[in-house]
UniProtKB/TrEMBL annotation:
InterPro entries: Bact_Solute-Bind_Prot2, Peripla_BP_I, SBP_2_dom. PROSITE patterns: PROKAR_LIPOPROTEIN. Residues 1-20 form the signal peptide. GO terms for molecular function: carbohydrate binding. Residues 27-59 are annotated as: Disordered. PANTHER family: D-XYLOSE-BINDING PERIPLASMIC PROTEIN (PTHR30036:SF1). The lineage of its organism: Bacteria, Bacillati, Bacillota, Clostridia, Lachnospirales. Residues 53-329 form the Periplasmic binding protein domain. Transmembrane segments: none annotated. It comes from Candidatus Weimeria bifida. It comes from the Bacteria. It is found in: Cell envelope. CDD domains: PBP1_ChvE (cd19994). Keywords: Signal. This is Sugar ABC transporter substrate-binding protein.
């Protein structure tokens, strides 16, 4: 496990967002795939003045980034921009090289979802020297003054939704003398989002742990004890198998498994299938709406996921990037002028990357369960339901 990164979290600020309801069309149609190579390039019409957008995504091995890359590419191309899209196989050194390549290609703006939020200061300094503005996409890039804006979801709220789901399902407020058990699985310590998710959930759950209503047999309640390098499914699975072997082998019941996202939930679900002797249904949380997890929700193996409409994240990124490329200085007014039809807040308090506050556009996450899945994911056009009853992302 990596040493804990120093993150400047202004959680109080995260709670004090000035939410603005906005209206425009949420595009949810993306091109189908960015192909198997790590870089793809497109051509465009002249509307954009021949400008090129460089997009650096972390990896294809975590499902959502395939959707992000595809939606972003489609959005920018629809306005006539050229797109260079790279995937860096979850390797930080490779992401540095890929971004250097985009700078050498003289892209007009960079959109970067960092693998390691602390490892890009130097290469983004080169982008700044070359006058290329950078949008930190979904994950905040730390310790650099080279990024102009941050586009993401309300990451603290993602965790709150997970924590509240567990609280409500276990009816912790009316538990009386009943006690429930829980184990936690967090995300990648190199990802600045991961502690936000964890803290959002723990701020809900910790009071019940303190009261003794919730117990954690492994004793692992700190982010660094629960973190999962690179959000890796098998890493999460092995850790949970160890916990089950060490603390639940004598027939102890596990009631809930807080998992910060779907790739870790997948590992935890596998561990429970293979190594848990209890017969109860363990509550398992997630985030993203990855296809295997939505299948598990339909099959009753995972309880919920926090869905983030990354199609809308791409729309915000497009409108923001256009203003930046046009030499404007976007602020809260972008929300109104763009006319988005989804909630988005402009936040100038919550995200400090160690060099100062980064102005942020934050979208709103939603809880998806078996009961509202069709309404929130299929009726909105983000997914299609197959004849087998399972959902497939449209993207
Ligand atoms: C994203 C999550 C995702 C995780 C792993 C985070 O930065 O916000 O949506 O589950 O990375 O890909």
């Amino acid at each position: 496990m990596k040493a804990k990164k120093v993150v400047s979290l202004l959680m109080a600020g995260a709670m004090a967002l000035s939410m603005a309801a906005c209206g425009s069309t949420a595009s949810n149609s993306g091109s189908s795939s960015s192909g198997s190579s790590s870089k793809s390039t497109s051509t465009s019409s002249s509307k954009s003045g021949g400008k090129t957008v460089g997009i650096s995504m972390p990896t294809k091995s975590l499902e959502r980034w395939n959707r992000d890359g595809s939606y972003l590419k489609k959005q920018f191309e629809s306005k006539g921009y050229k797109v260079e899209l790279t995937y860096s196989d979850n390797k930080s050194a490779q992401q540095n090289n890929d971004i250097e390549g985009l700078i050498a290609d003289k892209v007009d703006v960079l959109v970067v979802a960092a693998i390691d939020g602390e490892a890009l200061s130097q290469v983004l300094g080169e982008a700044k020297d070359a006058n290329i503005p950078v949008i930190s996409y979904d994950r905040l890039i730390m310790n650099t003054d080279s990024i102009s804006y941050y586009v993401s979801f309300d990451n603290y709220k993602v965790g709150q939704l997970q924590g509240n789901y567990i609280k409500d399902q276990l009816k912790l407020d009316s538990a009386g003398s009943k006690k429930y058990t829980i184990e936690m699985t967090g995300g990648d310590p190199a990802d600045n989002n991961a502690p936000f998710f964890f803290k959002g959930a723990m701020d809900v759950l910790q009071p019940y742990i303190d009261k003794g209503v919730l117990t954690v047999p492994s004793g692992q309640t700190k982010f660094n004890q629960c973190a999962t390098d690179r959000w890796d499914t098998s890493t999460a699975m092995k850790r949970m198998q160890n916990i089950l072997g060490s603390y639940y082998s004598g027939g102890k019941q596990l009631d809930a498994a807080l998992c910060s996202n779907d790739s870790t939930a997948l590992g935890v679900t596998k561990a429970i299938e293979s190594d848990y002797a209890g017969k109860n249904k363990v509550l398992i949380t997630g985030q993203d709406g990855d296809e295997p997890n939505l299948k598990n929700i339909v099959d009753g193996k995972q309880s919920m996921t926090v869905y983030k409409a990354v199609a809308n994240e791409a729309v915000v990124t497009l409108d923001l990037a256009i203003q930046i490329m046009d030499g404007k200085k976007p602020d809260a007014s972008l929300i109104k002028s763009s006319g988005w039809k989804f909630d988005c807040a402009y936040d100038t308090k919550s995200y400090d990357n160690g060099k100062g506050i980064v102005p942020s556009y934050l979208l709103t996450p939603e809880v998806v369960t078996k009961d509202n899945m069709d309404k929130l994911l299929v009726d909105t056009g983000y997914y299609k339901k197959g004849s087998d009853g399972y959902l497939k992302a449209v993207g």
